[in-house]
Design goal:
The chain has about 270 residues and is an alpha/beta fold. About 35% of the residues lie in helices and about 15% in strands. Helix 3 packs across helix 5. It is globular.
């Protein structure tokens, strides 16, 4: 039987560092729509199977019309427990496997979504395949819903909106593999392509001013080539990476059950 494949994208508007960031304009459109363009371009999904997973908070109401206008759908669930939000969404839509892209990453690369899913579907022992080695903010994952169900059953419910992916990659709860860059031209050691701070918004607006063309998608190769030519663009926000990773280490407090024992996930 052909597996039913979808995509899950977590998004909240109540960001502490850059409130409402998913709806802030980049190249004249809300930031989230640029990510939806890229996910919907995957050969494994159609727009109605792309699901933005947000919360039931009233502050996230403005997302709905924007997402639905792009042809995707919305699932609303737990505010802080993304594992539960994902699990409920996958069960609601009947997915067997999902592309998982982060809502903060408007330039997530479609090619690597497809490479991750291809690898996952080709090996029944795998629960997750992650793209590694790309510029920060361009990678995605492919997750088997049976692995998501295992993580959901064993995770200790609570706040996991920071670092949730470590349940899949560091807790030993499912088989994992990685897809690496297919070309050195897809690598950049210091670029930062995630939207968390005002400087990130400045960076994306400058990037799109150079590369965006209506009706076309630019990918990792074009991004890296531009940043190699224009290193001043990298300097807009690259200094924030250390702060970002320190914040992740401080906030990621993940635990799961192993029999009667509660274990902490390495962060």
């Amino acid at each position: 039987m052909t597996p039913r494949i979808g995509a899950l994208i977590p998004v909240r508007l109540a960001s502490e560092r850059l409130p409402g960031k998913a709806l802030l304009p980049i190249a004249g459109r809300p930031a989230i729509t640029h990510l939806l363009d890229r996910v919907c371009a995957s050969r494994y999904v159609t727009p109605p199977d792309v699901v933005v997973c947000t919360t039931e908070d009233a502050s996230d109401d403005p997302l709905v019309a924007v997402v639905e206008a792009a042809g995707a759908r919305v699932f609303r669930g737990s505010r802080d427990d993304i594992i539960d939000r994902f699990h409920q969404a996958a069960e609601t839509f009947g997915f067997d496997a999902v592309i998982q892209a982060d809502g903060d990453d408007p330039c997530t690369d479609t090619q690597y979504m497809d490479l991750c899913m291809e690898r996952l579907l080709g090996d029944d022992t795998l629960g997750i395949v992650v793209a590694e080695g790309l510029p920060f903010g361009l990678a995605s994952k492919a997750i088997r819903v049976s692995a998501l169900r295992t993580v959901w059953e064993r995770h200790v419910a609570g706040r996991n909106d920071t670092g949730f992916i470590y349940y899949f990659t560091r807790a030993g709860l499912c088989g994992k593999a990685a897809v690496r860059p297919v070309s050195p031209a897809h690598q950049h050691a210091t670029a930062r392509l995630t939207l968390d701070y005002p400087e990130d918004l400045e960076f994306f607006r400058a990037l799109f001013a150079e590369l965006h063309r209506e009706g076309e998608l630019f990918g990792v190769g074009e991004i890296v080539a531009l940043l190699d030519r224009r290193p001043e663009l990298v300097r807009i926000n690259a200094s924030l990476n250390d702060e970002y990773w320190q914040r992740t280490r401080d906030l990621a407090r993940l635990a799961y059950r192993e029999g009667d024992t509660i274990r902490q996930v390495e962060v």
